C-alpha cells in the first residue's frame, strides 16, 4: 500500500539529481514508445547552483545503445536519441550532471519496454459462454426492487493455466488486460497491487494493457497463472438510469494475457491465453462498480492458482480470437489502495444493524473482520456519505446505485471480507447481520484512487483553512479513479469536462497529474466529432451533448495547462489538431464572434447561487480563451502562420465581447460575479474598463454582505482576481466565511470533502435535491489553486513554463499568522514559509537549481527588508528590482533565503 504524502527531496551537500523518470514515471515497466523522454529533478543547498551540462547513456544488458554526449542545456530532460528501442526489453539509463564548478554527480534508473509490434502478441481473447450458463441470481434477501437489475450481469469467472518450466528463470513478465476488470495471481500469490485494472478508457479505440514482473514468483517445475475476471466499465453499469445503462462496450468480460519467461540460457517460454486455459465460477458471485459485490465464502476454491491443484472439474475457456488492434501500453499510474482508515465509531441500531463511521468521506471499500459467524450467515454492507437526522444511513442521493456488498460466511473462527471489483463513495457503512458485537477494530476503510504522485503541501495557522485544503485533497483522491470523475457514489461517476478543466490547476499543485490527464486527453481526442465538437463527458458515454461552453473548452485548456505546468510540448503537438478543430467549430457557427449558436447543453455558471450569469457572456469569454490558447500552442510547436491567425481571431473576439456586453461604465451584461471574473481573468477588458469592472465586482460582493454567488465557472477565479486587484482582505473574508453559501459552511456542518452544491445540506432545508447532491465533488474546491499560488505564494511568471521562472508572492491577511507551502516542480522542490510575529514579517524561500524567482516581500517599509546574510542589496544571487504594491521586489537565483521586514 502506498501513502499519499509528500516526501522530501534528498538532503545533499552539492548539486544532485534525483527522482529519475522515464515517460514521467519512476522505473516503469512496459512503456509504449521506442523513443522515451528521460527526466530528473535537482537538489542543492548552494545558492546559485545550477546544472552546467548533462550526459545520458542508455544501456541494454550492460551494452551501451545511446550516449547523448555532454550537453550544455540547462533542461532537466532529454528524449532518447539513439536507434529505436526494442520490445520486451529492460534498459538502464545513467545520468551525469555537471555543476558550474565542474563537479560531476551521477544517478541511474531502469525502465522496460512493452510490446511494440502486433506480431509479438501470441495471446487470444478468452471468455465464458454465458449463453449456456445463467446470469447471476441476486441474494434472496434483497428487498429493494431496483436490485433485480443485477440479474442482467455476469457472475465473475476464475481462470487458470498450469504449465511446466524446465529451465531456471532469468526474467518473467506478464502483459495483460481485459474487457472488464481483472486481477492476476501466480503460484498462489497476487500479482501486483493494481486495483480496477485495466482502468477506464474508451475501449472502442483504446484499451490499456499492464506489465507485471513475476520473476520471483515462478520456478522450475509446475507453475500456475490465474485470473479473476469481472464486469467493470466494459459491461457493468455506468451512469444514471441503470436499468438500461449496462453493456456499453460489450456483454461478456474477456481476458487477454501473455507471460514471457526468459531463461538463464537465453531461451524463452511464452504462455498466452487460449483454449488451454480453464475456468469456472467461485465465491465471487456478483461484482459491479455501482451496485456492489457479493461473496460467498462457502464456495471458496482453495489454492486454485497454485501448483498441484485438482482442476479436473473446470471447463475450457472459450477462445474468441486475437484482435489486439485497440491495445496501448498503460501510460499512467494505476488505481491503488493508498490509505487505510480505522473506524472511529460504531453505533448499534434496531434489528441487529450497526452504523460505522470512518470519520472521512472516501472512495474505496471496507475490509471487514468477521468473528464467530455460523456457516451461511449473511452480512450486508450498505454505504452512504451522510446520516439522516435519526441516525439512519442517507442513501437517497445514490439514485439507482445500490452501493451494497454481501458476505456469506463459511463458519470460520475469523474471516475477512474485502470486495475486489467495486468501489463506493462513502463515510458511513450500515452493517446488517453481523454475528456478535461489532467493534471499531473489525472495520477498516481502504481508500482507492489513481496513484498520482503527491506533488504539493500546504498548511497555515487557521484550522478552518487547513480543513478546507484537506477536503479539497480528499475530493481529488475520491474522484481521480482512472478518469477525473464528478462523484464517486451515485449512478454517474463520469468524466465531465468542465469539472476537469476548472479543477486541473488545483489538482496539479497537489499531485503530479501529467500522465493521468494526458491519458484522459487520448479519449477526448477520439471522442471529438467529425465537425469538431467535444462531448460533455470523457470517455464519451451516456450523454449525447456536444460542444457545451466551458465544458468542451477542456480541449484547449487542459493541454495548455499541462504544458505550462510540466513543460512537455509533446502534449501540445498531440492536442493541436483537436484544439484547432474545436475553435473552428465554434467560429464557423458564430461568424459575428458572439457565441450563441452550437452551445449544446449550455449549463452556464453551473450551480451558481441566486443569480444567473448571462450565458452569451460566459460562452464568448470561453471562445476567446480557447482561441488564445490555440494560438499560443501553435506558437510553441512552430506553426507561426496559425499562431498569427488564431491570435488575430482572439483579438477580434475580445473586441466583439466589449462591444456586445460592456457598457460605458464598465458594467458587464448580467452584473454577476462570474460575469466580471471571466473577462478579467481572460484579459478581455481594455485597461480603461478593468478597474471599473473590479469596482462592480466588489460592489456586488459588498451588497451581498461579502458573500459569493459563483458556480463552477467562477469560483476558481474569485480569490485570485480580488487579490490581483488589491482586495486581499475581501478574498480572505470569503475564505474564512462560514455562512451559507461558503466553503466554511459545509465544514461547520461536518464536511470532510468538497460538496457538489453549496446547498448540499442547509440548516433551513436539510438535504438538497436528491437528483444531484454529491458530497464528494471537487469542482467548488478549485480555490485550492489560490491557497498554493496566492496564500503560500508559489506561482510562475506569465511567460514561464514548468516553473522555471518562479514568482514568490505570498498574500498575508485574514486570520492567518503564518502559512507554508511546498511544490515539486519538474526542476525540483520550491517551498515558502511566511510568518507575522510581533510586527515582523518573515519569509523563507527555497528555489530549486535551474530556476530563478522574483520574490515579493510584503511591507510598507522597503528599507526594513533584510536577508539572513545581510542587506538585500549586498547579497550574491539577489538583485533588487523595485518597491511596488507595498512590497520590496527582488530577483534571486536558486538556493535558500530568509527575508525579514516590518509587517
UniProtKB/TrEMBL annotation:
Q: Which residues form the Alpha-L-rhamnosidase C-terminal domain?
A: 799-869
Protein name per UniProt: alpha-L-rhamnosidase
Entry keywords, A to Z: Hydrolase
**In which domain of life is the source organism classified?**
Bacteria
EC number(s) for this protein?
3.2.1.40
Q: Which residues form the Bacterial alpha-L-rhamnosidase N-terminal domain?
A: 167-339
List residues of the Alpha-L-rhamnosidase six-hairpin glycosidase domain. Answer: 455-789
Among the Pfam families in the record, one is Ig_Rha78A_N
What organism, scientifically named, is this protein from?
A: Kribbella steppae
Q: Which GO terms describe its molecular function?
A: alpha-L-rhamnosidase activity
Give the UniProt record's GO annotations in the biological process aspect: carbohydrate metabolic process
Which InterPro entries does this one have? 6-hairpin_glycosidase_sf, 6hp_glycosidase-like_sf, Alpha_rhamnosid, Bac_rhamnosid6H, Bac_rhamnosid_C, Bac_rhamnosid_N, Ig-like_fold, Rhamnosid_concanavalin
Q: Which reaction does it catalyse?
A: Hydrolysis of terminal non-reducing alpha-L-rhamnose residues in alpha-L-rhamnosides
